[in-house]
Amino acid sequence: MNHQTFTWDRSGNKIRQTERWLEGLWILVLLLAALLLLLINLDSLSLQDGKEKMVPQIAEAISRTSVDSWQWLYPTINGQPNIEPPLRPWLIATVYQIGGNNLWTPRLPGALLTAFSVPLLYGIGREIFPSRQTAIFSGLIYLTLLPVIHHGRLALVDGTVLCFIVLMIWCVLRSRRDLRWSFGVGIGLGLICLTKGLLLGLLLLTIALLFIGWDTPRLLTSVYWWSGLLLGIAPTTAWYVVGLLQPGLFPQELRGLLWTSVDTNPTSFPWYYLMLMDILVVPWILFWPYGLRLAWNNYNWGWAKLVLVWTGFYLGAIAVMLNKLPGNFGDFLPIYPALALAVGSLLTEVWNWPSHKAFPRCWSIGLSLMAIIASLLSVHFSRPEAVDWSLALICASVALTMTIVAVLVARRDLQFIVILFWGSYISLLLFVTSPYWI
């Protein structure tokens, strides 16, 4: 009896050690793959006009002052109060003090945080999916989304706030088992508000509360959970309150500070941005409707509740606020983690489909159209009179990937998933090493 117990314990410990080793390995692989895409060739192109140049100027000004200076707490522009949340200037100013004022330093904080959001999304998958495979698929999909990589490489708030959103949702999921993680929820929420304003913070808090109310309603009546949330967001609350109490510190544009994530533009309509989103998230946009349908059919599962609430409420909020629409495409980035989770669950379902079940015909048709368009563009950029080998090579990589995947889908070969991940990553790598990534 003792011998059997000892053998069982040793075997169980070995299994747990193997599990921890695999977990750490996947986290490391995803992080290194993200760092390569987000850091390589980062200083090859100059900063864009507009906010990518404005905020580094603020950061450079405050980096020349003492850390305990009021200028660090409430940055100014040419002596005038800044109407944007301060976290991005703080991060860039810190990098300036460490690495100097170089072309890559304004982009480094956002790129690093975007890279860390990839293993964090994998962590979300491990919290809500029963298998590691689905979490891996979701992390790889998120890693190969063009808007995530593109915006993460710029000296803008988009990649930074995306990391804090994923961090907040991860803490929400972990708080279902351990109430102490509600403190992390408050920290993530506060970082979102200090990066892109209160409106986005309120949207994400509403999504979190709707999910908890549907999935784990007992947390909404837990004093400990709310105490941790309020304690975590206390520093951000103090920053806003102190700023409001100081006369003359915030100008008339205080509304811009509080709601800076949204630009007033009553003449535009979100369908333009939705169309642009469809173009930039190929090929995953082909699978997204099926992932949402899978979530709808499994609405009693935690992952499906999160995907449906996240997707439905955020897109619904954008559609309703017709007089306060996103002023740039980056405002659609918060929806992409939910997209990755939905498609990741779908690909796992496809991986386990019975052998007689056929794939949707629109997958092979859509992939074939992408391959044809990419091939035509590759030929266009290879013309002798206007040759551009960088763009030609990128388009050729996309065309080859989509062609192979379309054939494998038509033959119902599950290896199309592996080829799609690998080809998308290589195409993105060619893109970020080209002179056109910006």
Elements, N to C (H/E): HHHEEHHHHHHHHHHHHHHHH
Radius of gyration: 23 Å
Strand numbers in spatial order across the main sheet: 1-2
Structural class comes to mainly alpha
- Helical proportion, percent range: 55-70%
Could you tell me the strand content as a percent range? under 5%
Verbal overview:
This protein has 438 residues and is mostly helical. The chain folds into 2 domains: 41-273 and 280-352, no CATH class; 361-432, no CATH class. It has 19 helices and 2 strands. The protein has helices spanning 2-39, 51-63, 70-73, 87-99, 108-128, 132-143, 146-153, 157-174, 182-196, 198-215, 223-245, 254-258, 271-280, 288-297, 302-320, 336-351, 361-381, 389-410, 416-432, and strands spanning 76-77, 80-81. It has a two-stranded antiparallel sheet. Strand 1 and strand 2 form a beta hairpin. Helix 1 (2-39) runs antiparallel to helix 5 and helix 14 packs across helix 15. The model is unreliable at 1-9, 251-270 and 322-329 (pLDDT under 50).
